[in-house]
Amino acid sequence: MKTARPDSIRLWTRTRAAVNLPPPPFGIPSWSEGETAAVAVWLEVATNAEDGDLASMAAQIPRAETLVANTTVVVLPTAIRPDRGWLRVFGQRTLRVRNVPRALRCTALLVRGYVDIAAEAAGHRGEPLVWGRAPEFPPLV
């Protein structure tokens, strides 16, 4: 499959923290609002989550059947991990970033119903991107 190269992309994340957003992939200058041809998912991990928690990662990716057919969904290579310790008690909130393995992100896309799943070796600031496409027909289950 060819490398995904959308013209615009919107950010999909469940984090509600006031943080600096990651830069959009593929050299796109800024995040788009509203419906676009592509979606980038920025995952969040719990402070007590173990590495490789497929269920929690997949739950953060929109189900393929909820998107328009052929929508590209990119899963960013890093996830945020909010600091929920003593700093939060004192009104300070910090975020840590951790890398999410490429295989885990690809598997999460597969679990959520995406097709044509692919990866790029060093697409986002030198880190691998993964993406999938919402199918044209609902999956047979």
Outline the structure in words.
- This protein has 141 residues and is of the alpha/beta class.
- It has one domain.
- It has three helices and six strands.
- Strands 1, 2, 3, 4, 5 and 6 form a six-stranded mixed β-sheet that branches.
- A hairpin with a 2-residue loop joins β5 and β6.
- The longest helix is centred in the C-terminal third of the chain and has 10 residues.
- The two termini are 25 Å apart.
- The mean pLDDT is 81.
**Number of domain units:** 1
The secondary-structure element order is EEHEHEHEE
Q: Which segments are poorly predicted (pLDDT under 50) over 5 or more consecutive residues?
A: none
Average pLDDT, rounded to a whole number, is: 81
Strand composition percent: 25-35%
Cα separation of the termini? 25 Å
What is the β-strand count?
A: 6
Alpha carbon gyration radius: 15 Å
Biggest sheet character: 6 strands, mixed
Q: Please estimate the helix content.
A: 10-25%
Supply the helix-strand structural class. alpha/beta
User: Given the C-alpha coordinates, what overall shape results?
Assistant: globular
Number of distinct helices: 3
Briefly characterize the structure.
With 141 residues, the protein is of the alpha/beta class. The protein has 3 helices and 6 strands, in the order E-E-H-E-H-E-H-E-E. Strands 1, 2, 3, 4, 5 and 6 form a 6-stranded mixed β-sheet that branches.
Draw up the topology in text:
Elements: E1 10-12, E2 38-44, H1 54-59, E3 72-82, H2 86-89, E4 95-99, H3 102-111, E5 115-124, E6 127-133
Parallel strand pairs: 1-2, 2-3
Antiparallel strand pairs: 3-4, 3-6, 5-6
